[in-house]
Amino acid sequence: MKKILLALLFISNISFAQQTALSLEEAVQMAKDKSIAAKQASTQKETDFWRFKSFQADFKPQLSLSGALPSFTRSFIQVLQPDGTVAFQSVSNNNSTLTLALSQSIAKTGGTIFIQKQLQRFDDFERNSTLYNGVPVAFGLSQPLFRYNQMKWDKQIEPLKYSESQQVFLESLEKVSLNVSDYYFDLLIAQVNLQIAEKNRSNNDTLYKIASKRLELGKISENDILQLRLSVLNAQKDLASAKQQAEVAMLQLKAYIGYREANKFDLAIPFQIKNFEIDAQKAIQAALGSRSDAIAFRRRILEAERDLNKAKAENGLNANLNVAFGLSNRGAKPLDIYKNAQDREFVEIQFTLPIMDWGRSKARTETAKANLQLTQQSVEQDKLTFEQQIYTQVTLFEMLQKQVKLTAETDGIATKRYQIAQDRYILADLSITDLGIALQEKDRAKRDYIVALRDYWRAYYTLRYYTLYDFELNESLNLRK
């Protein structure tokens, strides 16, 4: 009889397998391949790539064709007469132009050099005549003088922005891993709770049946049987709640990792933790060499220095030199402009010199200086916070490695103790209260172990996210781009 009762107690053991078995590593890889978050990161990376390509193209030779073709006018225009009066004269003409130009920006000076050809055709329909004007060839320079050089600063800042965006992409993938870990363990804990609830419901049913037999024999009080009945009802209620929580957690995990199939997951508990030591200084150096934050520190200071340079340059003399040399001619036919072409020169200096601005220039410069100083201080503080964050995470990771081992041992002891308590209760050698305490301790130890595993894996993926470094393989994640 006792053997039959023991068999009834353990027939409700539940396995984690396997409509669709899924490990944590498989879930992470699936999310990196299929999740919307990973696709968004990839799209943003591509956007940043083409934006940087556009920036690079600005420093390469540009060939362009511009013009007005046709440019027809039919109207009356005002014509001043020799005696000072005004006459309105009818005009009907076409004044078309075409310009072919090759230009090249000069990053060091902020200027532009160019070579161009131009052809102009004028048709006077009132007089039935056609004239051509053109520039067979011309060379020129447009050079800002004493002015802010945007190209010089862009050449320093834009590559940093692009490098920063590349690291943001890697961080986004590691953030996906971190989020998957959270969703995975939310479902795993829900499944463990469901397993516990189902087993407790089954065990309480069995114990209630045993107690009912004892009540008939007068070996148990009515209070004990009522307590067992209450335990059965609570177990049924806990089971219904656990099922609902498991369904919600299942949907959240499937939605995040991009899994579209109808079948459910049976998750594998990631018992095998990664045992390795991490040097905090090495972790900090890895982060400073890879994280987008480290690149952003340099970029922010450069941008503040750029703003100060711009404020200073725009406060004084602003001038622009425009120079062009070449040939020009006119004629009745297009080829006439190439015959005996004449010299063509153009030199111009445009300038603006503030004389009285009531301290506006000084105020802008002092503001830019203060902003630079504030940025330097903020970056210094952010660096300290950044390093402290990594150091804390390394310490936490090492502590959680030990915590997992302790909770695993506790879980084993609590499970064994509950089995002994069941045997003793069947033999009438243990009270129902002590059996309930053993059950609670077993359930709490199991949950604590799974929670410790969750905290450990979250710390593991967080450390990768903070440093972009794989400490298990001892290599930077940059090598896997």
From TrEMBL:
<feature type="signal peptide">
    <location>
        <begin position="1"/>
        <end position="17"/>
    </location>
</feature>
<feature type="coiled-coil region">
    <location>
        <begin position="225"/>
        <end position="252"/>
    </location>
</feature>
<protein>
    <recommendedName>
        <fullName>Outer membrane protein TolC</fullName>
    </recommendedName>
</protein>
<dbReference type="InterPro" id="IPR003423">
    <property type="entry name" value="OMP_efflux"/>
</dbReference>
<dbReference type="GO" id="GO:0015562">
    <property type="term" value="F:efflux transmembrane transporter activity"/>
</dbReference>
<dbReference type="GO" id="GO:1990281">
    <property type="term" value="C:efflux pump complex"/>
</dbReference>
<comment type="similarity">
    <text>Belongs to the outer membrane factor (OMF) (TC 1.B.17) family.</text>
</comment>
<dbReference type="InterPro" id="IPR051906">
    <property type="entry name" value="TolC-like"/>
</dbReference>
<keyword id="KW-0732">Signal</keyword>
<dbReference type="GO" id="GO:0015288">
    <property type="term" value="F:porin activity"/>
</dbReference>
<keyword id="KW-0472">Membrane</keyword>
<dbReference type="Pfam" id="PF02321">
    <property type="entry name" value="OEP"/>
</dbReference>
<keyword id="KW-0175">Coiled coil</keyword>
<keyword id="KW-0813">Transport</keyword>
<dbReference type="GO" id="GO:0009279">
    <property type="term" value="C:cell outer membrane"/>
</dbReference>
<keyword id="KW-0998">Cell outer membrane</keyword>
<keyword id="KW-1134">Transmembrane beta strand</keyword>
<keyword id="KW-0812">Transmembrane</keyword>
